[in-house]
Design goal:
The protein has helices at about 10-25, 40-50, 80-85, 105-120, 155-165, 180-185, 200-210; strands at about 1-5, 30-35, 60-65, 65-70, 95-100, 125-130, 150-155, 175-180, 190-195, 225-230. It is of the alpha/beta class and about 250 residues long. It has a single domain (about 1-245), classed as Rossmann fold, CATH 3.40.50. Helix 1 (about 10-25) packs across helix 2 (about 40-50). The structure holds 2-amino-2-deoxy-6-O-phosphono-alpha-D-glucopyranose. 2-amino-2-deoxy-6-O-phosphono-alpha-D-glucopyranose binds near residues 36, 38, 39, 130 and 159.
Length: about 250
């Protein structure tokens, strides 16, 4: 695992945007796996700036997002579809972007369709991830086993609490979501995980320096062959000084 220790959120976002641009320059027709949450927002802003400055062209690239809430339509301002359009897709020339359909009642069918879609695109070249407060990636919540494929999950109360800031109240946060599985994520050729802020520091330590366990879903990333962790100083404040420091 490569670790980039950046001074603050701004610098972390700058580094992440550079890496995503490098991926697109090396393989313009790449498949990007994208994430929601507060952490990548500034990264997306920087990608938009670069596109507007004509420094990067997304016209051959496609993206697949990690997850989507169940039961809210893509036009709903709280949906991840809407989030991604607002922060990224409405402002750049991405060839195509895909998210799970949270309104499909037949969840098994939808999850299978999403897995097949990713396979038909040739798999994910670069998967961007955030880290949930409870160690989740995508919406793979802590549990007794790693779920391999795209599946429907019941969100943990801690996730509902963490995400209620995007809603009027905790009651409005959907209780279920459709998420890529751990296997889907682990098949990505490269993984880029972003962590920011002191409140992630303990989980960063557990996920990347603790035992690999489904109780901390992100811990599985320790055995992926190509993971880059970019964190600000606050988020990396509890990790052992491992000597692999970049940036
Ligand atoms: C949500 C998303 C995750 C994201 C997490 C962390 O639960 N499903 O993909 O990593 O939030 O969000 P934040 O970046 O706001 O801490």
């Amino acid at each position: 695992m490569r670790i980039y220790r950046e001074k603050d959120y701004e610098k972390m976002s700058q580094k992440a945007a550079e890496m995503i641009c490098a991926q697109i320059m090396m393989k313009p027709d790449c498949v990007l796996g994208l994430a929601t949450g507060s952490t990548p927002v500034r990264t997306y802003e920087k990608l938009v700036e670069r596109y507007q400055n004509k420094e990067i062209d997304f016209s051959e690239a496609v993206s697949v997002n990690l997850d989507e809430y169940r039961g809210i339509s893509k036009d709903n301002a709280q949906s991840y579809h809407y989030f991604m359009r607002r922060h990224l897709f409405d402002h750049i020339n991405m060839k195509a972007f895909y998210l799970p359909d949270g309104m499909e009642e037949d969840t098994k069918k939808e999850c299978r369709r999403y897995e097949e879609l990713i396979a038909s695109l040739g798999g994910i070249d670069l998967q961007l991830l955030g880290l949930g407060n409870n160690g989740h990636i995508g919406f793979n919540e802590p549990g007794e086993s790693f779920e391999k494929e795209t599946h429907c999950v019941c969100l943990h109360q801690s996730t509902i609490e963490a995400n209620k800031r995007f809603f009027q109240s905790a009651e409005e946060v959907p209780k279920q979501a459709c998420t890529m599985g751990i296997g889907t994520i682990m098949q990505a050729k490269k993984i880029l995980i972003l962590v920011s802020g002191e409140k992630k520091a303990e989980m960063v330590k557990r996920a990347f320096w603790g035992p690999i366990t489904p109780r901390v879903p992100a811990s599985i990333l320790q055995i992926h062959q190509d993971v880059t962790l970019i964190g600000d100083e606050a988020a990396l404040s509890k990790i052992p000084d491992c000597g692999r420091k970049f940036g």
